[in-house]
Amino acid sequence: MHEISREVTIAAQKKGISQLYLKDPLLFSEKILKGRLEQFLEASGGAKEYVFYDRGMPDITGYLDYTGKDYPIGFSKTCKRNRYDAVFLLPPWKEIYSKDNERYESFKQAKELYPFLKKSYQKFDYSVTEVPFGTIDHRVAYILDKLKILF
After folding, report:
1. What is the pLDDT of residue 122?
2. Where do the structural domains in the chain lie, given as residue ranges?
3. How far apart are CA 93 and CA 130, in angstroms?
4. Which residues of 37-68 are buried (b: 16+ CB within 10 A; e: fewer)?
5. How many CB atoms lie under 10 A from the CB of residue 5?
6. Tens digit of pLDDT for each residue in 104-128?
7. How far apart, in Å, are the Cα atoms of 74 and each of 17, 19, 81?
8. Is the dihedral of CA 95, 85, 1, 110 positive or negative?
9. What's the pTM?
10. Would you tell me how many other CB atoms lie within 10 Å of the CB of residue 126?
């Protein structure tokens, strides 16, 4: 599944808001949570063996924890009720990291944010598998091998 935050960011930019997350983190996060929940529910009825999400619902609380922003209890309830089967996190990798029109965090910020993302998944009782650096083929093989073990 594609990354919802890019769509939300682009829609806000069309309305003249360059970074909705910086202007109104809670509104941005509500829109992201709604989109990610829709993706989750859509995929739940599918017949595919695996569905991969670019980011999951607990990323939202991780970002807000990182920035120190409070959020409604409904965010956590949604994360608890709608669970993924497995979680793979890819640590920030300087050699491939790039900023763009929708990703405005520096590499330094991405490194600072990463522990908050990991902790957010752990807070919702996920076993987090970190994917090692390597070629795309190597990373895909690593994830698929782990999925065979898990399922």
Report:
1. 98
2. 4-150
3. 12
4. bebbeeeeeeeeeeeebebbbbbbbbbbbbee
5. 23
6. 789 999 999 999 999 999 999 999 9
7. 26, 24, 10
8. negative
9. 0.91
10. 19
